[in-house]
């Protein structure tokens, strides 16, 4: 499997980092600039918890339990973070494979399958007021839970979305993935205010340069 080695960069996650339309894609987008200068924003297990909290992947109580577990065994937390990053790269390979019609390697599929199985095992069925409901199994709270839930969501949520609406941002030094939910299906940018405007300004500068050249020649 092709594991990239981006520069690790400290980054406080904000609303602009959750534009993928699905948590699985936002998780993949925690590496930014894959097309030019990749930077990995998960600089430690606490950052993974911060990301999971802001993406509303897990309730605050579960995140507090995971934070306690990570504090009492930082080495195990770091190992879990590395496994989460492996899964992230497997997801990037799979989603870009879906976009470009390219088959990912068997290793990628094996890793995703394992994560998905663990994600299913992290759930239990309960009978309540509204019939059978799916919930998180409290026994499943371990340091790998975030990665397992992401793999679970890939199958549960992302695979049920139309594949032809999966996109990679056309911006420079970005390569974020997103689901195009626009009516016309012509969304090109992760965020118009960031990559869209940067591209517009690059085109404008290029046109100015061209005009200047023509007028001086
Ligand atoms: Zn972008």
Topology:
Layout: E1 7-8, H1 23-28, E2 31-32, E3 39-40, H2 45-54, H3 60-72, H4 74-100, H5 106-121, E4 123-128, E5 131-136, H6 145-156, E6 166-168, E7 177-179, H7 192-216
Parallel strand pairs: 1-3
Antiparallel strand pairs: 2-3, 4-5, 6-7
Helix pairs in contact: 2-3, 3-4, 4-5, 4-6, 5-6
The protein binds zinc ion (ZN).
Zinc ion binds at residues 169, 171, 174, 176, 189-190, 194-195.
Bound molecules: zinc ion
- Class inferred from helices and paired strands: mainly alpha
The fold-level CATH name is Jann2411-like fold
Radius of gyration equals 20 Å
User: How many distinct helices?
Assistant: 7
> How many strand elements?
7
How many domain regions? 1
Mean pLDDT: 93
Overall body shape: elongated
> What's the CATH superfamily, by name?
Jann2411-like domain
Order of helices and strands: EHEEHHHHEEHEEH
Regions with little confidence, pLDDT below 50 for 5+ residues: none
């Amino acid at each position: 499997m092709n594991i990239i080695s981006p520069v690790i960069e400290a980054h406080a996650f904000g609303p602009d980092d959750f534009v993928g339309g699905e948590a699985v894609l936002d998780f993949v987008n925690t590496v930014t600039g894959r097309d030019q200068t990749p930077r990995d924003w998960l600089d430690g297990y606490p950052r993974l918890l911060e990301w999971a909290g802001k993406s509303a992947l897990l309730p605050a109580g579960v995140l507090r339990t995971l934070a306690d577990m990570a504090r009492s065994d930082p080495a195990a937390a770091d190992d879990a973070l590395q496994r989460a990053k492996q899964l992230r790269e497997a997801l990037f390979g799979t989603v870009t494979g879906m976009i470009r019609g390219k088959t990912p390697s068997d290793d990628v599929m094996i890793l995703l399958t394992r994560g998905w199985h663990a994600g299913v095992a992290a759930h239990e069925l309960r009978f309540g007021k509204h019939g059978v409901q799916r919930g998180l199994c409290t026994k499943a709270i371990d340091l790998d839970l975030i990665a397992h839930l992401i793999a679970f969501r890939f199958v549960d949520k992302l695979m049920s979305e139309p594949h032809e609406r999966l996109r990679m941002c056309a911006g420079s030094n970005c390569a974020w993935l997103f689901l195009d939910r626009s009516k016309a299906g012509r969304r090109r940018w992760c965020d118009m205010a960031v990559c869209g405007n940067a591209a517009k300004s690059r085109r404008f500068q290029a046109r100015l340069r061209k005009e200047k050249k023509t007028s001086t020649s």
